[in-house]
């Protein structure tokens, strides 16, 4: 059939024939559907007879409407569904892939005319030509798409979609790979099942193996295997292993063709040592082909949890945990020339107050009598790496090598091995992370009490959206758990076109409201009592919070005198410091700091003026932020508006005061209540360090030159942080002062001096050591992708404030490309690996994360993709995110849960869920599946198009078939719903810093405009572009590939 | 009465002031780097003098033009242009929050300006001396001729 209508849009049956004839995978699938025993003997024939069976799947071959290629990617509902599940599932999906890729390239390329094999394939069955005919036409658009392997060695015949007559098969290579990855394990199993059927193939041509890597799908699954190899195989070995079956085509049919463009593979007997150095990814495209040659699916994906550097931790057991300090590479370059060849920046990500891993709580040390032991010259604190000499009378600083005297009180004899005899009682000499109680010298003033000041916009939009009610309730319920009882202080200002102060004096029964309407010269009506001790004035505060929503519920005032209110708050607080929480529902419109609507001029986007939209418009905000920091006030901004609020300006306040921006676009009490409640509660109750400063010291010869994050620099290396908590991380870049480092080890010490909520002055210390290396390869080996990505995200976001988004994205890409090219220069030539992108094991996820970063909210697209406010808010958030949360945001978890819901698992563990994560590709989505997408900030619940109505009804009630944008996932009274809620609860529990709201998305259904626009966007984003299908991946990595080669 | 020496005296005074202001700013940035000064103080100090400096330079420029000293005017133009550009793009004031990112470039800019003013000062002083000489020996033909050539 396919033969007869080659030019018509492929009909199901022709597609079927395509599958059956061209791809063994498809063929085998068909066989699965039908009768397995016939598989090999009748292979060529089923295509024509089995049309109807696979027909519905074949429909995916229809030329896609332009721009909707993503749709195609989703498996359409299919009657064949019964074929899913059993081992061959993998093949089934494989087939999907083939369809997908075919569909993608809509315009048939003239050059892709079916290439009739130069001659009948040597071993091909007579049916070969016949099956071929339809194929080229169908697959023309994207030649690469069809995986070509026949289970039987006699059917090695290939379909020639290639443009290049001389290399008919080269195209298959890259493309066949992708499919395998997506299937992951399932394919592997399927394949495994097949292997016995062609034993000769795998073993027959060991030498040709390397040439053919891309040829066959299994290479992916096996590549993956290499990352977590069942056997201790090096990436290379495992690749070879995986290539086993592949040589078929090359070796039997057209030996030598592949080598031509693919370069020469390493000799089979690759030395083990070298094989361990790197992994590789086939990027080679056939000359003249249109394919980028990159197989998107071959990219390793971080499914196995977080990236950790185990070996490094073992090397220096007394280093602080990587949750506190992560270096982008643990091998510090010994010379500036070496550092300049390392394009991934040398630096550290520091999260000084991160929640310590279980069992590794940070010990508190009190040098009550001795005073804190520090180096006289460089002021380094005593740490596990200092050495005691002269029988314990002196200690040598590990940073500057100065010999310090040991004070009398701190003296202890050394034992025979040079250890202090009291070592066991000295946690500061044993642990990388400790906390010291600081004596009075470390106080400029008496430790401040925790202070919370609330600045609440009560204009009409706040009253209407229900913000006031939620905020008042949440604050009230958090009053008991505010840190620092009984010293905690609290105060409120509300504002619309006037500013309202509240006298909360403890002797009052009700708070007194004082209205100031002179915005030009705000004066504070009372000297004190605007800021009161919570435990004394508890009743008044509660009375105020009870009446707040009703007080303003009929407020019709649309103005917002934000700037003057901010100044008033500053005046009230400046004596103490503390934290201001701003709840802003509209654009500040009155007084100083009034903002205007920006960003609605589309013409600005993409020009050199674009970045101006992302920086504060009015210098007032920067100046205010600086003043706040000076007086130890942190600002957290909560923004709720559905219209433009200029987060870029408001967020500046948070950025330079160590605060945070929370953005709830189009806040609606019914939807966002839980989220706001959770996040505000966490903000108010988490352990916070007040009036802090942080300094990172390091050994002589290296120096931290730039810092990135939400803070303000008070001097070249002193970060002023009015408030710090466990959700804030900071990045610092390192540079070498001297041209050549002579030391063997570089030490880092993070010191955070802060006031705890209980009113104690403390110093949190994290000490780490890193070896100095002389070899670039070693730097690559010790690289930490997570830290690099975290650093890159900060650099890119900062760059987006002064350049175009495009430039910021390019900068990330260029760095990655440069790094990989450098690595290539290091290894590829000597091992003759041309045509493949090679990368060290430690950086295997870097390209993927780099890509994800470029697609992240603050850096993505332009006007149409992300609203300005969202972009800015996400930027501020990402600047402060700790490493792990950032990774999760960039590469979210995607878990299929319908099986779990149907089966009765008694308990679901975190670890199980981690295991169930699937690739973030469109191909991972099964039409009958129910998936949870979790990026740490929100859940997207994705329902397949042909999901069982039972599941839908049970979870969503009778609204199941209705408009999803209006349906909420409320708990229902049935086991499935309860189970899902439990699961979501588990997910949320594992990441409490933000509350993940559920967004429902149904396959093929666009969220309606009725939903708040930004929510729509995020759903869109999640369900479509974020699932990084080959469509999106390929063009992005294309330049990467080209440049690595260049 | 020949007014030229007075004019050149005014020029040299202005130039000296500019030199001083720039040196003051340069010192501020150096102190900031060495942690003798905090960014708040630095920004308030520098932002206080920066506009007067620009104005003074502008006045000098215009004065050169008005008095017909074309060469001197042209020489002072690049700096004036730089100042104007800074001012128009709103970069002339020190941003207290980001000052550490720009401190090295600002220092370099100040250093270049310092060099410029030093050279300029040399020229102005020479002209001052010459004008004084020519005023004193106005009747001496040779010197007058020589100074007009210059």
From TrEMBL, chain A:
Keywords: Endoplasmic reticulum, ER-Golgi transport, Golgi apparatus, Membrane, Protein transport, Transport
Composition-biased stretches (Low complexity): 129-140
SUPFAM superfamilies for the chain: beta-sandwich domain of Sec23/24 (SSF81995), C-terminal, gelsolin-like domain of Sec23/24 (SSF82754), Helical domain of Sec23/24 (SSF81811), vWA-like (SSF53300), Zn-finger domain of Sec23/24 (SSF82919)
Compositionally biased spans, kind Pro residues: 107-128
Bias (Polar residues): 92-101, 1011-1023
Residues annotated as domain Sec23/Sec24 beta-sandwich: 689-773
Cellular compartments annotated: Endoplasmic reticulum membrane; Golgi apparatus membrane
Family: Belongs to the SEC23/SEC24 family. SEC24 subfamily.
Pfam families named in the record: Sec23_BS, Sec23_helical, Sec23_trunk, zf-Sec23_Sec24
GO cellular component term, pick one: Golgi membrane
Name of protein: Protein transport protein Sec24A
Domain of life of the native organism: Eukaryota
Gene Ontology biological-process entries: protein transport; vesicle-mediated transport
Domain called Sec23/Sec24 helical: residue spans: 784-887
Chain ranges of the Zinc finger Sec23/Sec24-type domain: 372-410
PANTHER family with a match to the protein in the record: SEC24-RELATED PROTEIN, SECRETORY 24AB, ISOFORM A
Gene expressing this chain: SEC24A
Domain Sec23/Sec24 trunk: 447-683
InterPro entries: ADF-H/Gelsolin-like_dom_sf, Beta-sandwich_Sec23_24, Gelsolin-like_dom_sf, Sec23/24_helical_dom, Sec23/24_helical_dom_sf, Sec23/24_trunk_dom, SEC23_SEC24_subfamily, Sec24-like_trunk_dom
Region annotation Disordered: where it falls in the sequence: 40-145, 202-277, 1006-1035
Signal peptide start and end residues: none
UniProtKB/TrEMBL annotation, chain B:
Superkingdom to which the source organism belongs: Eukaryota
Source organism of this protein record: Salvia divinorum
SMART domains attached to this UniProt entry: Cornichon
Principal subcellular localization: membrane
InterPro entries membership: Cornichon
Compartmental location: Membrane
Similarity comment text for this entry: Belongs to the cornichon family.
Organism placement in taxonomy: Eukaryota, Viridiplantae, Streptophyta, Embryophyta, Tracheophyta
Membrane topology: Multi-pass membrane protein
Record-given protein name: Protein cornichon 1-like
Alphabetized UniProt keyword annotations: Membrane, Transmembrane, Transmembrane helix
